[in-house]
Amino acid sequence: MKAAIVLLIGAGLLLQMCAAAGVEDRSIFPLQGKHVHSSSIVECPNGDLLACWFHGSGERTADDVVVQGARWSRASKTWGEVSPMADTPGFPDCNPVLFVDAQERLWLFWIVVRGHGWQHSILKYRVSTDYQRGEPPKWGWQDIILLKPGEVFAETIEAAFKELIPAEGMWAEYAPLYSTMILEAASDMAKRQTGWMTRTHPTILPSGRILLPLYSDGYNVCLIAISDDNGKHWRASKPIVGLGPIQPSIVRQRSGTLVAYMRDSGDAPYRVLISTSTDDGESWSPAVDTDIPNPGSSLEAIALRDGRWVMAFNDTEDGRHSLAVALSDDEGRTWKWKRHVGRAEARDKSFGYPSLIQAKDGVLHLTYSYREKRGATIRHCTFDADWIKR
After folding, report:
1. What's the domain count of the chain?
2. Which of 105, 180, 240, 357 has the lowest CB atom count within 10 Å?
3. Could you tell me the residue range of the domain that residue 80 belongs to?
4. What is the pLDDT of residues 229-254, one digit of tens each?
């Protein structure tokens, strides 16, 4: 009965109830008129938090878009002033991702959009060792990541399409098949070397291997940038192929199997897509539907230190007016518990693109894009995993 009542109340009252139950949800900065989107959050070794997002008058076609960030102080429990994180003058800077590696270096990955097209994006990164003094990070190194998916890229796509698309019934002389167009593009060396974009946190394997999840809006497929030398060099995995999988989030099972959950950019039914790897991210099974709804919106899943998994996602098939967190106690086979972080029955608010971490003290931190008619901001929510079950 209590759960049913929660599902029926509006977003504002829900957030008040969350606060009363020990869950906090706050804006990192006041509502404002520009487009702010695609946040990423990370915990510093000293317990502070850093968040970033992109800000501007639009997205890929707005040349004023920059990456901004802010710091949450563990001492004051407040967010500080917004400051610049990255700017390539005259080009949109989008989809930033923060990451602290095993050497406690702070990484910022993001894309620079060329020609106002996602498919032309260049993947950039910068690294800082001076980022914990209560001020914006001081970046010591910056470069681009160039990947060279080989001929196996096209071969893997072709094999997966044969499995996933046994027949494409509609055809016309002036309308090539979807699979034909993608395969032709996959055979183009220049096309397959550009347009790889970030969205979710990297994963560090027990071996020290770093897996950076990437996706392409040009191909509607994903791949993983792999580094076995602490980020000095990167190479491409085989692609994750499906009917529109993008923006993968990777979780590792105790067995070593990697599970990638992805946004659904394909046709109905609109579901979270899933792919697995049993060779530390080198190759991936074709992406297929789960029973988890997805409206074509980003999600993130993480493994907690106690072995449970948490996923943050829009739990609808047709909008971002509802943002949920779900809990699994069987490594993603089932998601038995779910609660809402934001929900607007009137669909007059948008909650999307969650970024999720577990801090050293066990608390979960979630940032997400929030928009209503008065403006937009990035919100920060904190909660304990057991709250999802209560």
Report:
1. 1
2. 180
3. 31-146
4. 999 999 999 999 999 999 999 999 99
